[in-house]
Amino acid sequence: MKQVFTNAQVLVPGATAPQPLNVTTDGDRIINVSEKAPSPDRDNIDCKGAILAPGIIDLGVFAIDKPAFHYGGVTRAALMPDQSPVLDLPAMIKHNASEGKPDLWSHPLAAATKGLLGAELAEIGLMKQAGARAVATGRSWIANSGIMLKLLHYCRSLDMPVIVHSEDSGLTANAVATAGETATRLGLSSAPASAESLSIARDIALVRESGAHVHFRQVTTAQGLDLIRQAKAEGLPVTCGITPAHLFLSDIAISDFRTFAKLSPPLRSEEDRLACLESIRDSTIDVISSGHDPRGPEDKRLPFAEAESGMAGAETLLALSLNLVRDGYVDLSRLFELLSTAPAKILGVEAGQISKGFEADLILIDIDAPWQVDTRRMAAAAGNTPFDKLPVQGRVRAIYKGGKAL
Amino acid sequence: MTIDQTGSPSAAGHQFPAGSDAFPHRHLLGIAGLQPWEILFLLKEAEQWVDLNRQSSKHADRLDGLTVINAFFENSTRTLLSFEIAGKRMGADVVNMHAAQSSVKKGETLIDTAVTLNAMRADAIVIRHGSSGAVQLIADKVDCPVLNAGDGSHEHPTQALLDALTIQRRKGDISGLTVTICGDVMHSRVARSNIYCLTTLGAKVRVCAPTALLPVALDRMNVEAFSNFDEALDGADVVMMLRLQNERMNGDFIPSPREFHHLYGLTRERLALAKPDALVMHPGPMNRGVEISSDVADDVERSAIIEQVEMGVAVRMACLDILTRRSRGVEGWS
User: Fold this and answer.
1) How does pLDDT run across B13-36, given as a tens digit for each residue?
2) Which one is predicted more confidently, B301 or B102?
3) How many angstroms separate the first and last alpha carbons of chain B?
4) Confidence at residue A243, expressed as pLDDT on a 0 to 100 scale
5) In angstroms, rounded to a whole number, what is the distance separating the alpha carbons of residues B135 and B73?
6) CB B62 within 8 A of CB B104
């Protein structure tokens, strides 16, 4: 069935601003993007001047949480292997790949090592056959550099990107915060921010050895971002991401022991936060994702050190990211490269941009619509957001997965 | 004896703003955030209990009929005993809950335990917990005043108050004194509360430890950090030694106890670097021969360690009294 989105401001690759275009879809694919008026035999969807953008591809979530994803305009999500049980067998990949269909596509990430223990390689080749599009080390890094190099060589030969967590576990040990004034005042065990740059430096050295594509899921420190910048200048196949939390909050947010602001990696100093924003501006950062990890009171209403890390981020991802446009760090087109196009490329899926032949994953957004984040009224499975009560702007008005309205 | 309960702090220099409560806080969760006049008010109130405790009959009926629960999720001997005696001398019914015997071991969450204690209609709850911030978590869920008896590496406010009272009685005004705190500052709630308390009262605070046991950003807390003990002692009015936890002494942070004693142990020779009348303090329990040598600890002229214990009971009596004044309907406390 063909349909045409008319009267829309369309975000297309290459243009810095939304263009007044018509987008024609047939079934689950985009078949035409043009200025031409639609022929009358097709179903017309009047977008009433709203922005038509590619659906968000959320790279690295910890739960498939459809209501939150749909609220936030997420049409595809790459599921982290840190599930119970761990996604380290082909059958689990197969099961999780079909879980959200048809209205949400889940791309389960294959566990790099059995049980994510960092000791033995998991059956990555078989998991690729079962539908895994990338490999991930989960919430932790692989401490043993020998195993890490073998993993990268193996993934290079399978042509699979490796998504890594960047914290040296020897330094972080039982730390729950970044070393700094806040952690000192609160008496929380902390690790220096260099735990991140140390692990990134090692992994970059191993990329140089192996040629594998490594995506650093969250880079949150000035030193870490400098290393990524240098590696990119050297031409190494590295990419990196961040979540809005590290762009808009510093470690002061954990004052009063607020467990909703307990994240992994932990929130950083204000200087590091500002460096992250600059790295959005200069395109050192490739991907913005939510790190969606809904956690109920049983995981969060605990003393800070005992609480689980993570935040429910999917429904605030777009509205918070739009602040980057308003503050002049990126334009709207670049923002959707960060949210949709780059994650699609890492996963190797024909989605994430409004171009002929790509999947018709589309969202209609009102970028000015004001609303207030409220932990008690979240679409997500749990309301653990550190942005409670924050007034934000930008709402998804309609979402289409594979051309179908949800 | 008759005691003024209205609590109008009259001493000069308290800077107590007219028209507000002498102590407007519902709980005592930490020293951070307290105003200097609030701390001085607590100290002034404690003085009367020092006097009472030295009499043969040590009973006040101020908390008659009130229930005070000491909920200790972490082992303690002296602090628990001190709070129990303080509550009993004030006439309260004191109940001790030890985590080892409680449903905490059966997996009950801290919040559920807090709600349970609250339902038993305690009039004050004293809590010690091994995790920083845990006491505040409970305080948010209960209707009665909560006193922090130590939470993780965060705060131990009554210890800082009793230390301040001890110093004040020996040295007079705390403002302008140089206080050196030596030991495992990184993991010490006593150090944090004392840093807040003493800097708020105008003392110059130095901390001293091997760098691995010093947290970062101490300069932001108006503290001068040293890793050379001799330099830290130079001209100090008060030397406060911290207990070195056993689990940190065997190769993890410190190569060995004897090496620590060699570099950071308070000996008579070292003490000579401080002022001639410098006061020696320790929150206890002491590791004799590790952070402090016995001849220093037992020197009645210099060591205030036993006096600290005595002041502890008085300070805790004052805290229980002041925090329950609103619920008891004391005039001037709404």
Assistant:
1) 455 666 667 899 999 999 999 999
2) B301
3) 25
4) 98
5) 10
6) no
* Residues lower than pLDDT 70 in chain A: 40-42
B113, B131, B151: best to mutate for the A interface, most A CBs within 10 A: B131
Cβ atoms of A374 and A388 closer than 8 Å: yes
CB–CB contact A187 B152 (8 Å): yes
Q: pTM score, two decimals? A: 0.93
Asked whether the beta carbons of residue A303 and residue B153 sit closer than 8 angstroms, the reply is: no
Distance CA B288, CA B266 (A): 10
Q: Tokens standing for A405?
A: 């309205």
Of the residues A171, A181, A185, the best mutation for testing chain B's interface (the one with the most B CB atoms within 10 Å of its CB) is A185
How far apart (Å, rounded) are the C-alpha atoms in residues B113 and B242? 31
Coil, strand, or helix at residue A242? strand
Q: Are B221 and A184 in contact (CB under 8 A)?
A: yes
Provide the CB-side half-sphere exposure for B247 (13 A, CA).
1
pLDDT at B8 over 50: no
| Dist CA B27 CA A250 (whole Å) | 28
Question: What CA–CA distance (Å, rounded) separates B214 from B242?
Answer: 13
Token duo for residue B272: 């000579």
Question: Which element (helix H / strand E) includes A33?
Answer: strand A29-34
A375 CA to centre of own chain:
21
CB contact under 8 A, B133 and A257: yes
Tokens (6 digits) for A235: 């031409």
* Cα separations in angstroms, B263 against B182, B183, B255, B268: 11, 11, 11, 14
Pairing verdict, β B204-208 and B223-226: parallel
Q: Which positions in chain B touch A297 (Cβ < 8 Å)?
A: 111
β-pair partners for B223: B205
Ordered strands of the A56-61 beta sheet: A56-61, A74-79, A105-108
Q: How do residues A173-212 score in pLDDT, each as one tens digit? A: 889 999 999 999 999 999 999 999 999 999 999 999 999 9
Q: What 3-state DSSP class applies to B67?
A: strand
Instruction: At A27, list the tokens.
Output: 């079934």
Q: Terminus-to-terminus CA distance in chain A, angstroms?
A: 16
Q: How far is CA B89 from the centre of its chain?
A: 19
Angle (CA) A31-A36-A37 rounded to 5° is 100
Structure tokens, A117: 């223990």
Which band of pLDDT confidence, cut at 50, 70 and 90, is reported for residue B102? low
